[in-house]
Amino acid sequence: MQDEGRKVRLLRSFVLIFSFTFCFLDQLTKFLARYFLRESKSIEVIKGVFGFTLTENTGVAFGLFSEYGRIWPCVSLLIILLIVFYVWRVEIERWLLVVSLSLIVGGALGNLIDRLLYQAVTDFIDFRIWPVFNLADAELVLGIFLLLAYLVHEERKKDAPSSF
After folding, report:
1. Is 90 helix (H, G, I), strand (E, B) or coil?
2. Residues designated as active site
3. No. of helices (H) and no. of strands (E), the chain
4. Which residues pair with 44 in a beta bridge?
5. Beta strand pairing call for 121-127 and 50-57
6. Which of 8, 26, 105, 126 is the most exposed place for a label (fewest CB within 10 A)?
7. What does the pLDDT read at residue 32?
């Protein structure tokens, strides 16, 4: 029983460690993008497929709702606080949940830092068939996808007939 409590505390700690690591990686890549790239000048890596293009985004995904730019820091902070509160209230026992929540918190924190420092999110990853995005955006999407996979898996376990 004591080992179980230690495992839960360890996994909670990993949520924080991973969240800050994902946030750091996002901020590092954005720093490099702001340093090496110039706005409205794209660096093509794979012709017609992939490159780096420095842009700023005051909205959310794909620049939507940019007219509500002042509310997004509050939304990001609320998401971060809700997840941190959840992590400290629930006994986390699965690595998939740790990674998914860490990606979401790290991505939300990375974009929150941009919004607070620059009043916009720095985007630079440019797959030509998709709007320009950043590492935090990818972390958020992957984190949400993994969280949904975790929830589906847990729901299926509940519905599975138990054997004696």
Report:
1. coil
2. 123, 137
3. 4, 3
4. 51
5. antiparallel
6. 8
7. 96
